[in-house]
Specification:
Strand 9 and strand 10 form a beta hairpin. Helix 4 runs antiparallel to helix 7, helix 6 packs across helix 7 and helix 10 packs parallel to helix 12. The chain contains 28 helices and 13 strands. Strands 1, 2, 4, 5, 6, 8, 11 and 13 form an 8-stranded antiparallel β-sheet that branches. The radius of gyration is 34 Å and the shape is elongated. The chain has 645 residues and is α+β, with helices and mostly antiparallel strands. 56% of the residues lie in helices and 10% in strands. The chain binds (2S)-2-hydroxybutanedioic acid and manganese (II) ion.
């Protein structure tokens, strides 16, 4: 048997050693022969040739008609656009008026081409209605199947539609490690969903799709220009952003009282913005959405779509306050819409208004107690307040729900942290492992959330590996003057060293004096330690490290820093030992489980995107200079363009 498989694999018949294709060809030839024999017999009994001709004509006609219909339906050829462009040239106001009164009759006489277009469009509608009906049927089955699901689970599907592009919660502090999203191109405009235009996104419950009527998004005025609107929608479906935008801009100029057309102008601008990476275009989209909402004849459902799009685009442009206000307006219109409320909560969080966000999520959890999105966000807020015990079940239930918006590194990050801080270390470890398995962390130890994926990650680095031999030499040869400058600031004006404020500390006292942050020099502080700053000035990879800081760090005896990770893998951290006490149990640092200590006048380099923990158990203070540098594998272009942290 063993010989059979290889020969079979190569397409040879084992017995005859001839190609299978050869055999197959013979079989085909045989078949053709017998077929032609059959035809020969059939010929004798066939009906008169005229019938055959008729049948062929019918077949050809059917093929052509269906060919036209399917190419039109799937947008292979946009007949309607072609026809409309052709006919538009001849249109006058009177003609339009007449067409609006008697569209079909008028068109067929005045514009035979257009009426042919209308015919195609009618076929198009028929086919899509057919599919909609099919989909509705599917939803009935689906509804039955899911009738046992909890109310919130069903609501989550809406959130899936609504909150996928929800903006992240942004933390202002650099080292809080609570940053929220992995690095991704920031210039991409919010996602455009032309599907939502048909009102699908607006469905409150998937089950509602079974009700035949789509939510009303067309005003009476829009209905009058429905065929034009459909042409534009097709352009959107075909992702022809700019074309669609120009089309709707023209359309709304001549039909300024049509909110749906205005909304679609906004959607087209939004698509163009994302295709051309143009922020001004997003501004135009926002204006269009705003105009649509303000129209007196704007249907409520269209208001919802427009306000949603407006808020998302405002948020994308960093206009956080208007984005919040828009979302608030939306929530006033739909006070029980969980998806809208969830997004409102995020808007509050992005502005640091945690208590307002908390109230929103309380309301969501009252309406839908198992809502995963609200649970993780509530957990996040409660954790920030320092209530670790209370945060755990919220974050756990939320992440366990697997619902959209819950599978984010930050929630696993905080769940693990809360577990660790309440002595549930084994569970914390499991959460970190799970986060790593799910691809939310680079590893169970490297849990930074703003990453460049290709960069080598390891806890400790030598100066050679980090490409900073010269920097290290300069720091180490000047360490005494650096130390003296630090001590002079500490001695004379102790108040200048600020308390660590990122809740990383468990016990004790930890203060810092910052010289550079996010690539910016602190002029006031540098004036007090000029030598140190001038040394750093000559280290472009430290001076220009917009994802790091340069600071003196002093730790008093009895200080313990919780295990934590920095926000990004784009930097490495140098520690220059300045005052290192050796009394008691001394001071030490563990990174990814590996213990190290400092030496006066020596530089230690580690990657703080790996979990690290510090103990200061000496009898006097410990003082170091922290100098962050760009990761050696980043390109010059990346160093210029990566966002600051
Ligand atoms: C850290 O970078 O988190 C700490 O190691 C800083 C310090 O002062 O030890
Ligand atoms: Mn740290």
């Amino acid at each position: 048997m063993s010989g059979v498989y290889p020969s079979n694999l190569h397409g040879y018949d084992v017995k005859t050693n001839k190609s299978r294709y050869h055999n197959a060809r013979l079989r085909v030839q045989d078949a053709q022969k017998s077929k032609s024999d059959d035809v020969g017999t059939a010929k004798i009994e066939s009906s008169p040739p005229t019938n055959k001709k008729l049948i062929s004509i019918l077949v050809v006609m059917t093929v052509v008609t269906w060919g036209l219909a399917t190419t039109a339906y799937f947008g292979v050829v946009d007949y309607k656009a072609i026809l409309s462009r052709g006919t538009r040239l001849t249109r006058t106001d009177i003609a339009e008026f007449a067409a609006s009164l008697y569209p079909l009759q008028y068109d067929s006489v005045r514009h035979p081409l257009r009426s042919f277009g209308n015919l195609l469009s009618a076929m198009d509608d028929f086919i899509s209605d057919f599919f909609v009906a099919e989909r509705a049927r599917f939803h009935i089955i689906d509804k039955r199947r899911t009738s046992l699901m909890s109310a919130s689970n069903r609501l989550k599907r809406i959130i899936d539609l609504g909150s996928r592009d929800t903006e992240p919660v942004v933390e202002s502090k650099a080292e809080t490690d609570q940053v929220v999203e992995a690095d991704k191109p920031k210039v991409e405009a919010p996602k455009t969903s032309t599907k939502s235009d048909s009102g699908e996104k607006a469905a409150k419950d998937p089950g509602e799709v079974t009700k035949k009527k789509k939510p009303k998004t067309l005003s009476d005025e829009d209905k009058r220009i429905l065929s034009e609107i459909k042409i534009g929608e097709k352009l959107l479906q075909q992702k022809k952003g700019e074309k669609a935008w120009k089309f709707f801009k023209d359309l709304t100029k001549t039909n300024p009282d049509c909110p749906k057309a205005k909304y679609l102008e906004g959607k087209a601008a939004e698509m163009t913005a994302s295709q051309q990476r143009s922020n001004p275009m997003i501004g135009l989209a926002i204006e269009a959405f705003s105009t649509a909402v303000q129209m007196k004849n704007c249907p409520k459902e269209l208001k919802k779509l427009s306000l949603t799009a407006k808020s998302e685009n405002e948020g994308f442009l960093g206009r956080m306050k208007p984005a919040l206000e828009t979302q608030r307006t939306l929530a006033r219109l739909y006070p029980k819409d969980v998806s809208i409320l969830n997004k409102l909560g995020v808007r509050f969080l992005m502005l640091g208004k945690n208590s307002a966000a908390k109230k929103v999520y309380q309301e969501v959890l009252r309406l839908a107690p198992n809502d995963g999105f609200a649970l993780v966000h509530m957990g996040f807020i409660v954790k920030q307040e320092g209530s670790w015990e209370e945060a755990i079940p919220l974050l756990k239930k939320g992440t366990d729900s697997n619902e959209p918006g819950t599978q984010e590194g930050k929630f696993y990050f905080h769940l693990g942290d809360a577990l660790h801080r309440t002595n549930r270390t084994a569970e914390a470890k499991a959460v970190y492992e799970q986060g790593a398995e799910r691809g939310l962390f680079r590893s169970k130890y490297q849990r930074s959330l703003y990453n460049v994926e290709r960069l080598t990650g390891k806890p400790f680095w030598t100066p050679e590996e980090a490409g900073v031999k010269e920097y290290v030499r300069r720091l180490e040869s000047n360490w005494k003057s650096i130390r003296d400058e630090a001590l002079s600031v500490m001695d004379m004006e102790k108040g200048l060293f600020l308390l660590e404020e990122e809740s990383l500390k468990d016990t004790g006292e930890w203060r810092q004096f910052t010289l550079f942050a996010r690539g910016h020099r602190d002029e006031n502080n540098c004036r007090r330690v000029p030598k140190t700053c001038s040394i750093i000035e000559r280290m472009p990879n430290a001076r220009g490290c917009r994802r790091g800081q340069v600071k003196f760090s002093v730790m008093m005896p009895g200080t313990h820093v919780w295990p934590h990770t920095g926000p990004t893998n784009c930097r490495l951290r140098m520690h220059l030992g300045l005052v290192i006490p050796r009394t008691g149990s001394g001071a030490r640092l563990a990174c990814a489980g590996e213990m190290r200590t400092w030496t006066e006048g020596k530089v230690l380099i580690f990657d703080d995107s790996f979990e690290h923990e510090v103990w200061q158990e000496a009898e006097s203070f410990r003082l170091i200079l922290i100098v962050d540098i760009w990761h050696p594998e980043l390109t010059e272009q990346e160093k210029k363009t990566l966002t600051s942290i």
